[in-house]
Specification:
It is a single chain. The protein is built from 9 helices and 9 strands. The chain has a 7-stranded mixed beta sheet with strand order 5-4-3-6-7-9-8, with helices on both faces. The protein has a two-stranded antiparallel ribbon with strand order 1-2. 43% of the residues are buried. The structure holds S-adenosylmethionine. S-adenosylmethionine binds next to helix 5 and helix 6. It holds the Pfam family PrmA. This is Methyltransferase.
Length: 231
């Protein structure tokens, strides 16, 4: 049954975190669903029906599991994914980085919109498996990257980041990197539902959406979500 973490799971996850264990964990704790604002794609997502949903960060940490960002389609990602699908010319034929990709939601929309190559980067090793399952479900290809790419420039033509300004330290590292990428000519777009550390004064509004979200995560039914560009 989805979500019951047996003792066997605890050992496997906290000690080895093998790709196959992570994959099996994701399949056991999620349902394939269409995110409400990006119904063109499907993702393995946690719902109220899953135990994962009810667990606190501390409980998850105790069993060796980072917060399951990959199990939710965050408002910022949904807004940015919507923008990419509605403006495929932004990514068509281009090399794209989906930074802090979580489920891979934004990268999948870029691949569907015709990107030539999509790197999907997230430091949580679970994300690589979630992204692989989600890419398969959408019949697209993502190159999953697990190293920390902050400060790195591999010449991406487009850099996309959904819902990344929720933490002060993270946000402070991102802004100069994004500015450098934009200054050398990359299109840098972020999707954000009003997180605390959004560097609004450095951003230009591109689109606004009302994105249906999960009350248990956001304490709201809908989040006004903006797609911003750098510079
Ligand atoms: C709120 S989630 C957003 C996921 C996805 N973009 C979306 O909108 O659904 C933030 C993600 O940032 C990732 N993250 C945090 N620090 C990171 C780093 N230095 N490099 C890459 N990803 C990072 C987390 O693991 C998490 O998956």
């Amino acid at each position: 049954m989805a979500g019951s973490l047996s003792h066997g799971w605890r050992e496997e996850l906290s000690v080895t975190l093998s790709p196959s264990a992570a994959r099996a964990f994701i399949l056991a704790n999620t349902t394939v669903m269409r995110p409400p604002h990006v119904p063109e794609i499907v993702l393995h997502l946690a719902t109220e029906a899953h135990d994962l949903w009810l667990r606190t960060e501390e409980e998850l940490e105790a069993i060796g599991l980072p917060p399951p960002f990959w199990a939710f389609a965050w408002a910022g990602g949904q807004g940015l994914g919507r923008f990419v699908l509605d403006h495929p010319e932004l990514v068509r034929g281009k090399s794209v980085l989906d930074f802090a990709s979580g489920s891979g939601l934004v990268g999948i929309t870029a691949a569907k919109a015709g990107a030539a190559w999509v790197d999907a980067a997230d430091i949580d090793p679970f994300c690589a498996q979630a992204m692989s399952l989600n890419a398969e479900a959408n019949k697209v290809q993502l190159a999953s990257r697990t190293q920390d790419l902050i400060g790195v420039d591999e010449g991406w033509q487009v850099v996309l980041a959904g819902d990344v300004f929720y933490d002060r330290n993270f946000a402070e590292q991102l802004l100069p990197w994004f500015q450098n990428l934009a200054m050398r000519g990359a299109t840098v777009l972020v999707g954000d539902p009003g997180r605390s550390y959004l560097p609004r004064q450095h951003l230009v509004e591109q689109a606004v959406y009302e994105v249906a979200v999960t009350r248990a995560l956001e304490d709201a039914e809908v989040k006004r979500t903006t797609v911003w560009s750098l510079g």
